[in-house]
What we know:
The structure holds 2 protein chains of 2 kinds.
Chain A: H1 16-37, H2 41-72
Helix pairs in contact in A: 1-2
Chain B: H1 2-25, H2 29-33, H3 39-45, H4 53-59, H5 67-72, H6 79-94, H7 113-119, H8 123-126, H9 129-133, H10 135-139, H11 145-148
Amino acid sequence: MPSADSYAGGIKDMPNLITVALITVGLGFLLAVPCIVETTPITMCLFFFLGIPLFAIGFLSYIAAVVQDLRRHEVL
Amino acid sequence: MLLLLVLGVAPVLVTLATFALSFQRAEHVTFCADCHTMTPWIADLENPKSKSLAAMHFGNRWILNDQCYTCHADYGFLGPIRTKLESMGHVARYYGLMKMPKQITLYKPFPNSNCLQCHGPAASFQNNPAHVAVMKPILANELSCVTCHQPIHTPVG
């Protein structure tokens, strides 16, 4: 399983999928903030229809990175 | 492990917290009033001269809080959950993800259970001769409360 410590060389050493996962999950967190601070139809719509799918994409990217890593090390 | 926490666990926790918080806040009248479609209905609600049932319940604080949600959530096992899911549909329609109807209407006739959740046990309701005469069809939802009790809303503008 890839861990943050595995990428001591910085973002350049990170697989693209992990970078994508971090960016999408980060955007999801950003969209959650306005909804938590002040819930309006706009902030709710942004989080529910954009933020949650971004979380899902981020998590799936992470899973894909884990599978890639396991295959590279011939575990799978 | 840190990545799993950041990319897997934290988003789930944030989503659950946001769900709970926003669905609770979405019950407030101010939330309903945020959509321009509701402006005429909110104007009626806040009009002290209005004789509509909604305005009377709001103005006299017969319902203390969350007046829109209190009357428009169907009360039953899954009623409040279904109402919240339908509300998400309203939000999506309003922002163009689906077609917005030109005139808003109820999904189905207004159920008596929404009125009876408060009025049902009240002596003033149970002992009223007009109600006593038709109590059975009222309780069976065969005779709607709003057949006699009108106007419900008098949207302004």
